[in-house]
């Protein structure tokens, strides 16, 4: 089943959180000259048109990136992410949203490499088109979970792995843990960033419990909720689980999250938290 299309959701509050964390990790990895790999298991189309029927139908970006990108008091932690958003909107109007591969492509250096995987028959050619002139990138059509075995460890022994499945299949909640566990066996020093939606809190609790059971240490959790938990339909919050986070990430996210929460949810509903699932 491949009915999920990210174009309906691009630039929403969950993307803002995910791509802020992604950008900060990339910037930390760039502090050393040595190259690194950016592996994106569920890469999407790369670029999303915000004036498209899909984006306009949900209007999710209006409560997401549209609230953030032109704020005058933009915190320094958002600078790398927003520079990637500006790079695809040079006219100054918000017409496009860069997905995780484009954000990485914008921030990575010539010596770094990108491995991007997308399964959807419509999104894969769009993604391939975005990177056809970028010698740093390899774009694969396939199952992203398999790449956690096939592409790890990277030759450079440094890297960020972004795992961002649609969770349209209930098995995704187990597959992410299995995939991380497989990847970690091969590449225990890598940074792993897993995105999750909070639709039913119990599902996330079970996923986190399974992650704890793997024995992996240094697991941080960052969450931004736009509403309180609910048993009704719909996503109330989203989060990023980061394994081996760069040392600055906790402080950076603790500092920027209150601003993001206030800007994305001026009514003050929900919560924004940084915590450790498993410490050192
Ligand atoms: N990471 C992207 C970003 O931040 O811009 C968004 C990705 S979107 C949430 C999830 C993507 O995973 C969709 O484009 C979907 O087609 C794709 N997908 C679904 N199952 C997959 C699988 N098993 N392997 C790779 N991609 C898959």
Automatic annotation (TrEMBL):
Pfam families: RsmJ
Residues binding S-adenosyl-L-methionine: 19, 42, 100, 118, 143-144, 164
GO terms of molecular function: 23S rRNA (adenine(2030)-N(6))-methyltransferase activity; RNA binding
Active site, renumbered: 164 (proton acceptor)
Residues annotated as site: Interaction with substrate rRNA: 4
Signal peptide: none
Keywords: Methyltransferase, RNA-binding, rRNA processing, S-adenosyl-L-methionine, Transferase
Quaternary state and interactors: Monomer.
Similarity-based family: Belongs to the RlmJ family.
Role, per record: Specifically methylates the adenine in position 2030 of 23S rRNA.
Protein name (record): Ribosomal RNA large subunit methyltransferase J
Organism for this UniProt entry: Shimwellia blattae (strain ATCC 29907 / DSM 4481 / JCM 1650 / NBRC 105725 / CDC 9005-74) (Escherichia blattae)
